[in-house]
Amino acid sequence: MTSLGAYAKKHRVAVIGSGNWGTTIAKVVAENTVEHADLFESDVQMWVFEEQVTIPKGSSSYDPGSELSTKPQPLTHLINTLRENVKYLPGVPLPKNIHANPSIESTVKDATILIFNLPHQFIAKSCEGIKGKVLPFARGVSCIKGVEVSDQGIELFSESIGRKLGIYCGALSGANIASEVALEKWSETTVAYDPPSMDSRHPSPKGSPRQSIDINVSDIDSTALDRGEKSKPQLTPLPSEYPPLSHENMKKLFHRPYFHVRLVDDVAGVSLGGALKNVVALAAGWVDGLGWGDNAKAAVMRVGIMEEVKFGKMFFSESVKTQTFTEESCGVADMITSCSGGRNFRCAKLSVVKKKPIEEVEREELNGQKLQGTSTAHEVNAFLKRKGREAEFPLFTAVHRILIGEKRPEDIPDLLESKTS
Amino acid sequence: MTSLGAYAKKHRVAVIGSGNWGTTIAKVVAENTVEHADLFESDVQMWVFEEQVTIPKGSSSYDPGSELSTKPQPLTHLINTLRENVKYLPGVPLPKNIHANPSIESTVKDATILIFNLPHQFIAKSCEGIKGKVLPFARGVSCIKGVEVSDQGIELFSESIGRKLGIYCGALSGANIASEVALEKWSETTVAYDPPSMDSRHPSPKGSPRQSIDINVSDIDSTALDRGEKSKPQLTPLPSEYPPLSHENMKKLFHRPYFHVRLVDDVAGVSLGGALKNVVALAAGWVDGLGWGDNAKAAVMRVGIMEEVKFGKMFFSESVKTQTFTEESCGVADMITSCSGGRNFRCAKLSVVKKKPIEEVEREELNGQKLQGTSTAHEVNAFLKRKGREAEFPLFTAVHRILIGEKRPEDIPDLLESKTS
């Protein structure tokens, strides 16, 4: 579909974030910008929140004869010198074309593709820092799992990033444990990308041009609208000097032999799967802790997937597809992984086994980190309560009621019986 | 929907088979025939392949003062006296209304509902023994997992039972480990039941009457036809003295607080899920054995579910629905359970860990029992080869090629890449 060599410019890729998942995704795309030199500039800028880091003595990069190892160094300097993120992804060699950059502004300068991979608490501030400084026709991909719940409703991170920067933002999510992807252990992921088509030279990503050629209602808006929101960012068309960001070309940016990518249109579905599975993983952990076996755990996952679908269709109806949850890595596969050994699963299981409140297990086990499942469960419940829809989501509601001590894990089958069977 | 008390007769239920799953299902339905006395006769006949059994000394039913414990007894006598299947489901108290019966003929006499739960090798002979001796309007439900592959093609057990006895036969399958269901640990299952409607008094099970009121092409035939078969059993309508076997009433026969049932129409889908997941479980075991982690395992399951859907739609096209595989217990949940700890998964994993052929692991681990996944993989492959469709099922084909030593588990990502991504 792509006519090679026909474009005057190449895409420039920037990764915003450099934790273990951010660095891993930077590695993936940097391998691909080299491999697909017809589409992408080789160099990948990666924004690093600068900090002074001392290389641990156990690290393979530790060298007692080098100044790098004997006194604290800026993390960007270590990454660019050692080709390793010694703090957040130790032991994984990084491609030479990744450039750790302490300035977020210079990271995004001239980039046509912005990949967001940050902890939740840094998103707003980071967007603030680059607002008006990104190319107006840049396109984003959010790798951030979770949803933002406020009094106004639920917003996806892809939506809020897109809204804040006035650009289109897709999403990447899947059954991906960062450290395993970094070690090139095989996995799959899902990339959702479906900007409105605004240029006859750049048909819709799937190849079939849409009817309207200059619409300003993005997927962001149609879903936001559903939830009573009004913002309608005006999207700027990608100039025709650049290769189109078709599904085919987006796949070339993310797909590796060890990281299989499937492209879909459903940004909301991809984002929701990554957020809501954490709620389900708590229930899976509880029934496992009760010793109810794999049957019960699989039943929780199945019911959980069905409630994800219902939630998506009810509150993000325009774009959400059942298959995103039932057939893609971001749905069923991520659910399976999270209910097999993720931290939400493990802490919930331990809370039953040790007969302790989950908050206590969280403190003991997570070394100051927080469970996403518990906060998402409460946020989702508050949202459902406001909408008067609690009863239609018996599993999500059961998780909330168990967390607040109103019900016990043993009650799950009863709580689900009337609604799901 | 059921008008209580309006029917002169009640349904009589027989269970054919008394292994651990057969006895467990007999327990489930015997609890329900008592609870729904308006629809069902309380007594449940259970056919037991008679054998002389000595109660093991470790059994809680062992009583040195009783003749039952000191010399071998007919298994039916032990079951009916002790209310326990000491050989195949020890330690689980059985309802008093189960009657173990050594005569298959007398077991099925006057039964309107026949539940088949036998090892594969007994099905043909058992059907032979009762052919012409079941009520012509009896309805069957097969709980037997697997498919029969012969030179003529693939046949479901529900189909072959229906064909042999000239009755309609549905299917029950789900993420159900017999011993866990027997102990009343919560799980879900799927019952597929969709006989052609033949009587205005008895509309189609879902409540919406079909157009034709006396068709003789059952689901069995439409699918068999697809595979070049010709048999068209003439179905006899259920007499109007009996309560209709609606989805609502079938659910009352199987649903328990610890065993949640969902009814669907798709008999082929329900049956195929239970057979094909064993092939996928081998691949899941291999990647787990390679240490590729939960991401890779979840990817195998996801691809496996998608190949099940494709297989069903390609070869059983009239009746198979995607959702049966992606949304029901018999599909996604059974896949998860089988790829978490089933014997196919375990032996495949051990074969990688111990670097031994899977046949050797099978001999060492299974005490003479056989893996279903390996034989199903070969049978399915032979079928696909005949149809010229191997390349369209890269995972099923990969499993076969790895089993015969043509490829290695490490090749799975490559073998899947071109087709699934």
Describe the structure in your own words.
Chain A has 421 residues and is α/β, with parallel strands linked by helices. Chain A has two domains: 11-197 and 241-265, NAD(P)-binding Rossmann-like Domain (Rossmann fold); 268-416, N-(1-d-carboxylethyl)-l-norvaline Dehydrogenase, domain 2. Helices cover 46% and strands 13% of the residues of chain A. Chain A has 18 helices and twelve strands. Chain A has an eight-stranded mixed beta sheet with strand order 5-2-1-6-7-10-11-12, with helices on both faces. A two-stranded antiparallel ribbon of chain A has the order 3-4. Chain A starts with 10 loop residues before the first strand and ends with a helix. The model of chain A is unreliable at 199-203 and 207-232 (pLDDT under 50). Chains A and B meet through strand 12, helix 11, helix 12, helix 13 and helix 18 of A and strand 12, helix 11, helix 13 and helix 18 of B.
